[in-house]
Amino acid sequence: MNKKLLTIALGMLCGTSAFAQVEFVDANGTVIPNGSTVIRNEIETAVEIPNLGKKQIIHSNISIKNTSVSEVSNIKTQLNVTDLPFGQTALCCPANCWITIGDFKGSYPTHKPVTSNLSENGPWTSPSATKLGSGKKEDLKAEWVLSEIGSTQYNGEIGDFTATYTILVNGQTASTINVKYTTDPNATSIAGTTAGSAKTAEAYYNAAGQMVSSVSKGVYIVKYTDGTTKKVIIK
User: Fold this and answer.
1) Would the pLDDT of 37 be above 90?
2) CA-atom Rg of the chain in angstroms
């Protein structure tokens, strides 16, 4: 038995109250570690209609993914934002767009939702929950819309705001990241992470520190390819 791993496992069982069974991943499936700040500054012209203008968007290109070995239910998302200088942002996970901030018509800067039944100040939590099977993911469908067809058009101004996204599993925080949306083309692509942040599970251990080939209900320690370990509770 690996005594070092057993010591780590027992320490985590005693000192860890929650396990990030659902994590944020980028478009390539790379895990974005908890606490990271990601920069998004690529402006896409989704639609352009003569005499009516353009729809220009900065996509987050981020999803939530179940990195555990079993289905995870009761997953919600949470959002908080700094003031938008212009445009509109929304969060459409799980399922539908449950919050929108900015309407192109009101006063700016603003961080107040235009969605009814939501308080003026965040953080805001999705009213509905979802579930994900092992290895499955769902797109956040989060973006910064700079201009809309037939509405205010983006004039090239440099501006930014930060959206804080949180995954909640059974009411507990699984992971939180910050996404800085900016129209500055020179902004760094990603901050707060390393190039080797991608990780996959390579082994599972029970509470006694013994490697197991399959899992069922209970408590397990997952060892990842980057050398880190985490506690998994399968219910």
Assistant:
1) yes
2) 20
